[in-house]
Queue: 4 jobs
Job 1
Amino acid sequence: MSPRREDAVEGQLLGGRYRLVRQLGEGGMGEVWEARDETLDRQVAVKVISLLAGGGSRGDEARARFLREARITARLQHPYVVTVHDLGESSTQRGIAPFLVMELVRGEGLDVKLREGSVDLAEAARWGAQICDALGDAHAHGIMHRDIKPSNILVTSAGTVKVLDFGVARAADPYATADRLTQTGFIVGTPPYMAPEQARGYPEPRSDLYALGCLLFELVTGRLPFQAPDSVGYLTAHLSQQPPAPSSVVAGVPEAWDALLLRLLRKDPAERYASAADAAQALRGLADAPEPAPTATAPLTEGWPSPSPGGPTRKPVAGRNWIAVAVWFLVTLVAATVTMVNIDGVDDGRDVASGAGAVAVATGGLIVWFAVRARPRWQARMALPLRFLPPALLFCVYATVVAADLADDASVGGIDGGFWLSVGGISTLTLVGLLAMAAALTPRTGRRTRGIGYALVGVNAAAVVGTLTTMLSGHRFGFQYVPFVSRQWALFAVGMAAIALFCTREITTRRAGSAGLTEHR
Ligand code: ATP
Ligand code: MG
C-alpha cells in the first residue's frame, strides 16, 4: 500500500477563497478543516468529501449529484442546524473532490461528551428536543438526515446543539439515484445507529427518530442499545433484537425515560412518535421533570466501586475505565507483594525482574485500553474480546492459585502454599474479579455471548460453594475457592452478592424488556 495521502494540506487555498488553517477531524467521507474565508475575512469550517474524489464519468456524475443534493440541504436554515455557506470542487491529492463550507461551530461533539461521560439526564433531554426541532424542520422541507450519530451533533458553548451533515450521507452515496423522500433501496448511514427499515434500504423520516433513540440511549446509559463486533452484527441486532430497558443497563433511569427511548427504538416506524415535533414535546416534558432518586430495585453492580463514591448511581459508562485502572493497580500490588515475599525463598533479582515485567505488561495494557477507548471504531471492534478478557484472566489467576494450593500443601520457603500471595492482594483480586465479571456480563447480548458469561458465573459459583463446604465442614473439597477465603466471611458474602446482583440485573432487564415490548401493542 502506498503511504496515506492527505486530502488537503495546511495553507491550501480551496475555491480561490478558503485558506485551510488546521484540521478539525476526519470521518468516513473525508476531512473537516478550520479555514479562513479570505473574501469575507471570517473563520469557517470546510468539509472535503474525498470519498467522491476521482476521475472518470462515474466520478463526475457522483460529484455533480452530490452538489445537487447538497444545494438542497444547504437551504435549511434553523438555529439548531449548522449553516452551509458554500459548495465547491477542488483538486486534492486523490483527484477532484467536492467540498462544503459551513459555519465554524466552537463547541464539543457529543462523541467527545460521551467519552468524557459527563452527560446528565436534563441535558440529554434538552439536546434531544433541540435535535428533534432540527429534524422536524428538515422533514418539513422533505429532507432526511440519515446519519444522526454523536459525531454529527455539536454542542456550542451556549449549550445549544448544531446538527451537522444533513443529508450528506445520502448525497455522498455514489449509487443513489431516486428522490429524496421516497423509498430508494440503498443503504447509507452508520450501522450502530441505523433504523431497521433504513438497514433494509427503505429509510423514511422516522428512521431519524430511531437513530436519535440510539444516540439518546447512549447519552443516558453510556452504551448503545445493541453491542456488536461489526456492522453486520449491528444491522442484524437492529432488525431482530429487542433493546433492553435503559434502567436495566444503568440504575436510576426514570421510567418515563425508559418509555420514551423504547418508543423511539420500535422496529415498526408507525409505533414510534408520529413526528419529530411529538418526540420534541415528550423530551421537553422530561427536561422539566426532576431527576428521581435511584430506586431500591435498581441493579447495583453499575454503581459499585466507582471513582465517585456517594455520587448518583446513574453514571454514564465511559467509566469502565476504572476497571482497567483497578486491574493495573492490582497487578502492581501483587507484583510488589510477590517481590517482597520471595516466592522461592531466595532473595535474588528474579523476583524483582518478574515483578517489573508484570507491571510493564500491565502498563502497556492500560495504555492500549485508553487508546482503544478514545477511538469509537476500534472500540466497536474490540468490544467483544474486551468483555471477556477481565473475567477470563481473573479465572486463570484463581485456577493458578487454587492449583498451587492443591498441589502443595507444604510450606515453601517457610510460607504455606496457600498463602504465597498476600492475603490483602488476593482478597482484592477476588473481589474485583467477581465485580468485573458482573460488569462484563451485560444482559441482552447475543445468546452465545451470554452463554459464556453464564459458564463463568457457574465456575465461580462452584468455587464459592467449595469454600462454603470447607468453612462448614473444616475439610477441603475438590474445587476450593482461594484457600484463605474460608477465613473471610465478608469476602465470601461479597462473592455471593455479586452473583446475586448479576442475576437480579438479568431478571430486571428481561422484565423491563418484555414490558417495553407489550406496551402500545
Ligand atoms: P462522517 O464522515 O460519517 O460524518 P464524522 O461525523 O465522524 O464521520 P466528519 O463529519 O468528517 O466526521 O467530522 C469530523 C469532525 O469535525 C467531527 O468531530 C466534528 O466535530 C468536526 N466538525 C465537523 N463540522 C464542523 C463545524 N462546522 N464546526 C466545527 N467542527 C466541525
Ligand atoms: Mg459528520
Note: Residues 24-29, 32, 45, 47, 82, 102, 104-105, 109, 151-152, 154, 164-165 surround adenosine-5'-triphosphate (ligand 1) (CB under 6 Å).
Job 2
Amino acid sequence: MAERIVSWHQAPSRPRFVPPPGAIDAHCHVFGPEAQYPFSAKAKYLPADAGADMLFALRDHLGFARNVIVQASCHGTDNSAMLAAIAQSDGKARGVAVVDPAISEAELEALHLGGIRAVRFNFLKRLVDETPRDRFLEVSRRLPKGWHVVIYFEADILEELRAFIDAIPVPVVIDHMGRPDVTQGPAGAEMVAFRRLLETRADIHFKPTCPDRLDPSGDPWDKFAAAVAPLVADYPDRCIWGTDWPHPNQQAVLPDDGHLVDMIARIAPTADMQRSLLVTNPERLYWAD
Ligand code: 0GY
C-alpha cells in the first residue's frame, strides 16, 4: 500500500483567541477511516486516517462548538465518511458534498436529511479531473431548497469563471478567496480582482482562510493578515471561517491549528465581526433549518 500522508500538526497549541459561543469551524474535512471508507480510485493524494473522533477532539481543543465538513477530493463523490461523521456529531456538524452531476432528486434529498446544505465544485486540476461547467450548472439548478454552491478555484482563472459564477442560481461561497496572491497587500491585483467579483453579486460569500497555503512568509503569516483584514472589514456579513484541518495534502508546512485560530483576531478585530464570521454568517448558510 502506498504511504499515507500525515498533513496535520501532531500537537496544536491552545489558541489565545477565544471563539464566541456557538462558533463554527466552517471549513474542515475527514479522511476515512480508510478501512471503512476507502478513498476514491481517482484520488490525487492518499492521506492517513483523520476521522470524526479526531476532528471533534480538535474542535473542543480549539474552543469551537460546531463544524461544517467539506468533502475532500480524496473521497471523490462518495460522501459516506462525511455523512457518518455528521451522524455522530449530535447535531454539531453539517456538510458540503461533492456529487456526480447526474445525481437523482431522491439522493439529493437523502443528503439533505444527512445534514448536507451545499455542493462543492472544485476547479483545481491538481486535485480533480475536470467536470464540464454546464454539468455543474445543471445540478446547481436542481439543489434542495436553501442549499448553496461552494467553489474552489485559483486566482488565475477568476476572470474566465465570471460567466459561470454569474449563472449559478443559488448563493455562492468561495474557498480561500479563490487563492489570491496575498503578498502584494490589500491593493494587489488579485485581491482587487476578487473584490470586483464580490461586487457583482451580493450573495457571494468567501472564506478568509488558509494563511498556511497563501502566505509563503510563514507563521505568523503577516502578509496574509495585512491583505485580508481590509476585505473582512468591508464585507463582514459575507465571510465564514475554517481551519482547513487536516490540511489536505499539505506536506511542507503543517500549520499549528491554534495559531490559525489566533489569526481570527487579526482579520476580524471586533467582537461584532467575530460573531458574524464565526456564528451568524455560517449559521445562516448551514443551520437555517
Ligand atoms: C482545501 C484545500 C485543498 C484540498 C482539497 O478537496 C481537497 O482535497 O480541498 C488543497 O489541496 O488546496 O480546502 O482543503
Note: Residues 37 and 112 are 20 Å apart (CA to CA).
Job 3
Amino acid sequence: MNVLILGGGGREHTFCWKLGQSPLCRKIFVAPGNAGTQQTATNLPIDPMHFEAVKQAILTHSIGMVVVGPEAPLVAGIHDFIKSDKALEGVLVIGPEKLAATLEGSKEFAKEFMQRHEIPTAKYASFTSATLDDGKAFLAAMNAPYVLKADGLAAGKGVLIIDNLAEAQAELESMLVNEKFGAASQTVVIEEFLRGIELSAFVLTDGKAAVNFPMAKDYKRIGEGDTGLNTGGMGAVSPVPFVTPKFEKKIQDRIITPTLEGLKKDNIPFQGFIFIGLIKVGEDPFVIEYNVRMGDPETEVVLPRIESDLMELLLATGKQSLQSQHLVLDPQVATTVMAVSGGYPEAYEKGKEIKGLEETTGKSLLFHAGTQQEGSTVVTSGGRVLSSTGKGSSLKTALAESYATLAKLDFEGINYRKDIGFDL
Ligand code: AMP
Ligand code: GLY
C-alpha cells in the first residue's frame, strides 16, 4: 500500500522512517516533508490544510492510507473531507474526525468531556467577553498562580500561568476582549494550578479496542533547568522512570479506560492516536490536556522503541481489529535532543547551511524537522531543526548517543539543551 504522511517535522520524519521498514508499505509520500523525509520518500509540495490538493495527491499516487501528523488539519476536518468524498472511498485515515478532534481544538469541550466521565483534571470554569466580570471575580477567589487557557488552537502559545492577580485579570481581559489569541481566545478556561511532574501517555485506538504506546516525558522550555519560554519541545525521553507499575495502573484505570469508554458513550468515533498530557500530583495522575495526534518530539523516542510493524498496527486500526494486536517493545531507553535555530522560540533566521550531516547518515537516528534541501546542501527552514535520538541500556548511555550525534553537526546559531533528562 502507498502511504501519504501529512506534515513536515521530526514527528513525520520518524513516521516515515518507521513505516519505511514495513514490507506492507510500498511507497511513502510526505506533504510537505523536509530534507530528511526526501532521502527515503517522495516529498510533495502541498499544504496539509489545502484539502483539495491532498485529494489530488491521493488520487495521483494511489494512496491507501493517510497518516495525519499535526492537529490543524484534523481540527479543520480532513478526515471528514476524505470520508465524504466518493472518489476517495476506502482510503484509510489515521487521525480522528472533526468531532473527536475537538478534544484538542477546544479546551472547554475537553474539560466538559472529562467532567462528564469523571476523569481527574484541574478544577475549572470558562468565560467569554459577556462574562468577563465573573471571570475576574473567579480569579479573585482563587489562589495564585492563575492558569488561563485560550479555548482554541493557539500553536502551543495559548496557556498563560501568572503569579499576580491584577496581571491575570488584565490578561483575561486582553484574551477575551482584545482577542489576544484571535478567535482561539473568545472563550477562556481558567484552571486550578496543579503542582507536579508532567508526562505523556499515547494510545492508538480503532474506536473499539486500543493499544498503549510507550509513555514519554518532554522538555518544553527553551532553557536548561526548565527555564525560559515555552517551545514546541526541546527533547524527550522514554520510558518515564517514575512511572511505576502501580502508577501506570492508576493512569490506565482512572484515565485511559474512562477516556476510551467516554468516547463510546458519547458516540464520538475515534480512529488514531490519543496523546494524553498528564501531571503527577503526589501519587495521582491528572489530565492537563488531550491531543488527537502523536507528540513532537515524543514520537522521536516512542516509535524507535517499538519493534512491532507499525504499518500492521495502522492497517488493523482501519479494520477495527486492534483487539488482536499487541505491541512488542524494545526495552532500551530512548532519548531525543532537539537542535534549534538561534533565537527560537522568538524570531530566528532561516537558510543556514547544516554541516556534518554526512557523518551521521546511516549511523544514527537523526530525524529532520525544519530542514530543506537546496541543491546539494541542506539548510535550516524552521525553529526546530534536527532531533537526535539515542538508544541505550540506560538514560545516560542513550543521552550520550544523542549528544555524540549533535556534536558532529553545525549550523550558524545552533542551540540545544545540554540537560535533557536532568530531573529524572
Ligand atoms: P497545555 O497547552 O494545556 O499543554 O498547557 C501548556 C503547559 O502549561 C503544560 O504543559 C503545563 O506545563 C502547564 N499547565 C497547563 N495546565 C496547568 C495546570 N492546571 N496546572 C499547572 N500547569 C499547567
Ligand atoms: N511536544 C508537545 C506536543 O507535541 O504537543
Note: The two ends are 41 Å apart (CA to CA).
Job 4
Amino acid sequence: MKKIFVLGSLNMDLVMACARIPAEGETLSGSGFFTNPGGKGANQAYAAARLGGKTFFCGCVGDDVFGSSLTENLKRAFVDISGVRVCKNTNTGIAVVLVSNGNNRILLDAGANGEVTVQDAENFLRNAETGDLLLAQAEIPTETLHGVFLYARRKGMKILFNPAPAKTELKELCGMCDLVLPNETELEILSGERDVERGTELLSEYGADVIVTLGGKGCYFLPHGGEGRYFPCPKVQVVDTTAAGDTFCGALSVRLAEGAEMTESVRFALRAASLSVTKKGAQSSVPCRKEADEAEMIFK
Ligand code: RIB
C-alpha cells in the first residue's frame, strides 16, 4: 500500500445554523452554535486516515488553543502529524461556517495557513517514495504549492489536487498534477465554462485527469485524452454538506493508494462522501472504513 501525504490547511470551524443568510446591515438569530475541527487539508487527512490510509500531514497552526486542539484531533485519527509546525504570534486558521438548508457558506481567516513554506513541504516529503500520493488543496500559499509540486514530481509521486478555494492563478498548477478534483463552482472559475463536460474538457487540456464532484448528482470523471463518464451517488437525507468534497478526496486517495482501479475508487469515495452529509460538521461527519464498506450493501 502506498503512503498518502496531505499538505494543506487546518481551521477551527465556528458553525451556526440559520434559516437564511443575513442581508447587508441585517441581524438574524441563528442556532446550534458549535466549534469543530476543519480546514480542507486537515479534513482530507482525517478522512484518509479514518478510512484506512497510511496518512501523513503537513501544515501550520498558531500558538493558541485551537492549534493544539486541531492537531490532537488528527493524532486521535492516527494521522502522523510530525509535519505540523507551530507558528509564534500567529492565530490558527478560522472558518466561520453558516449552514442554511443543509448547504454551507464559509468565511476564512487563513492565519497560520498562510505561513506554510516550500521548505516545510520538502522536509515533509523527504521520506516519500515513487508512487506515493501527494494530496493538496488551495488554502495555503500558491507559491508553496508550485514549489512542492515540482519537488513531488521529481520524486515520482502521484499528485492529486483539489483546487479549493478556486482562483484563476491555479490553472497553471493543474498542469503539474495527475488528477485534479474541483467541484462545479471551482471548475467554472478555472475553465471559464459553465457546462460541466465542456469545462472538464478544457481543464483536462492542461494534462491531468479530472474528476468534478457534483453534490447530490455524484461526479463526472474524464481521464486525460479519454472518454468522460458520470457516476451517480447514493440518495441520503442531507443534514450538512460541509467537508463532503474533502471526504471524497480523502476516500479516493485511500483506494488509489491500495491499488484499486479508478472506477472502484470513485464509487467508494462517493459512498463515503454521501455518508458524511448525513452528519453535522467537518471532521465530525467523516465515516470510518467499516461504515463506508458496509454502505455498499445499504446503497445497492
Ligand atoms: O471544505 C470544508 C472546509 O472548508 C471547512 O472545514 C472549513 O474549514 C473550510 O476550510
Note: The longest strand covers residues 31-38.
